[in-house]
Structure formats: C-alpha cells, structure tokens
Design goal:
Elements: H1 2-35, H2 41-72, H3 76-108, H4 120-140, H5 143-173, H6 178-209, H7 212-218, H8 220-237, H9 245-263, H10 266-269
Helix pairs in contact: 1-2, 1-3, 1-4, 2-3, 2-9, 3-6, 4-5, 4-6, 5-6
C-alpha cells in the first residue's frame, strides 16, 4: 500500500513540475511579446494558449489529488503534502492568469521605445527564477531552497519599486504617454504578484516540514483544512468498502465540488 502511495506521489510531482514549466513558458512568451517592437501577436497568442493549458493541468492535478485523498486516506505529513499540492496548483493557475494579463495589456499597447527604458526584462528573469526554484523546492522537499525563494521575493519587490521610480522620472522629465506608463506599471505589478505566488509555494515546504509549534502558530488555517478533508473522506467511504475505483468516481466528483467551494472561502484565500 505504501509503495503504491509513493508511486502516486511521484506521478503527482511530475505533473506539478510540468505545470510549473507551462507557467514559465507563459511568462516568457508574454514578456517577449511585450519587449518586441510591435507586440508580436504570435507570442501573445502563445501566452494565452499556454494559460489555457495551465487551467486544464490544474483540473487534472486536482482530480489526481482527490483520488489520492479518497483511495489512500493519508494522514499527518502525507496529508499535508497532498493538501499543499492543491494549494500549490491554485497559485500556479494564478501565475498563468497574470502572464495572460500581461499578454492582453501588450496587445492593446501603443508601440513605443519607452518600455526599453525600464528594467522589466530583469524583473521577468527574477520572477521566472522564483517560480522554477519554488516548484523544485516543493518536489524535492528542499527546505534550504524554499527559504532562498522566500528571501528572493524581497529582491523582486525592490525591482518593482525601481521600475516605479523609473516611470515617475520618465513622466517628470519627458512628455510621456500617461496611459503607456500605467500599462508598464501594471505589467511590473503582475510580475511582482507572480513572485508573491512563488514565495507562497515555497512556504508550503515550511508547512510540510514544520515543527509542531510552528505548524500551530503559522498554519492554523491549514490545520483546519486537514480537519475538513479527513472527515469528508471518512464519511464518503461509509457508503462502500474498497470496491473498484469506478465505484468511487462519484465520490471523487463530490470531493471536487466540495474543494471548489472551499477554495472560494475566506480560509483558503488566507492559506500561507
């Protein structure tokens, strides 16, 4: 039974890594379109299509996690790992949305050389590094790398402040289109938010590896999550014994709806 669970976790990690790569591709395509001289439409479309792939991957991984919860009924650290993966894919889906937003802004922007005078490219590279490292830290359960990602979020925040100051200087010294500057600031803000989501993913490793006291103080909402999931699984399993997985499929769908409602709740939005 344990070997089977470990195999399923390995598959889950592979899917999470693939979703992370899609996030990196979406960010790269969106910003490459932004940096191109004419807002390359092919790159914009690529970013939007990749975001759709990310959405589909989120649904697939969510179903995989629900099956793990239902069939294996994990406890303690194993339960925290699976429930953290559910939180992680929510963060990655938002990263995809923000890359898509950058692409949409680029599509409507007036061509200008002003965008080359702010350090968006550097900020993009930093944000992608955070996404890559955060996912690697989760898959490998690398606490040191997770702490590096969390610390690096301050670097990305400072880059946002730098771009903001650069735009203020451009407005004060040149006759710059105000709408263009707002678009540039919004793109920088989306990159800063991507960094925040990457930091949130890295913090999940602290949760999984946390000591009991740290877990109680910092992750009380997540403890509530575990308290919610476990009774649900146990209740659903009252209606049938082991059986075939096909018999359990309706319960998986039931769990999906329950989790969808939970994601909209106040508690989920404030998970670390």
């Amino acid at each position: 039974m344990r070997n089977r669970f470990d195999e399923q976790l390995e598959k889950l990690n592979g899917e999470l890594t693939q979703m992370g790569k899609l996030c990196e591709e979406a960010i790269s395509s969106a910003v490459a379109a932004f940096l191109s001289s004419d807002g390359d439409e092919a790159l914009i479309q690529q970013a939007l299509e990749t975001d759709s792939e990310i959405d589909k991957k989120e649904r697939d991984i969510e179903a995989m996690c629900m099956r793990l919860l239902l069939s294996q009924q994990p406890v303690a650290r194993d339960l925290r790992t699976v429930s953290s993966a559910l939180k992680m894919i929510s963060d990655m889906e938002r990263i995809g949305d923000q890359a898509s937003d950058i692409a949409e802004i680029t599509r409507s922007m007036t061509p200008s050389t002003i965008k080359n005078e702010v350090h968006v490219k550097n900020m993009t590279e930093a944000a992608i590094k955070m996404v890559t490292d955060s996912i690697e830290s989760f898959v490998k359960k690398d606490l040191a790398l997770a702490q590096e990602v969390i610390a690096y979020d301050d670097v990305v925040d400072r880059m946002f402040d730098t771009i903001k100051c650069e735009l203020i200087e451009l407005i004060s010294k040149q006759n710059v289109n105000g709408e263009l500057c707002i678009d540039l600031l919004m793109i920088a803000k989306y990159l800063e938010r991507i960094g925040d989501h990457a930091s949130d993913i890295a913090e999940l490793i602290l949760r999984i590896k946390s000591e009991h006291a740290y877990h109680i103080v910092k992750h009380l909402p997540l403890m509530a999550e575990e308290a919610i999931f476990k009774p649900i699984i146990q209740t659903l399993n009252i209606f049938s014994d082991a059986g075939s997985f096909q018999e359990k499929e309706p319960k998986v769908e039931c769990l999906r709806h329950i989790f969808a409602a939970f994601k909209k709740s106040h508690a989920f939005r404030h998970l670390p």
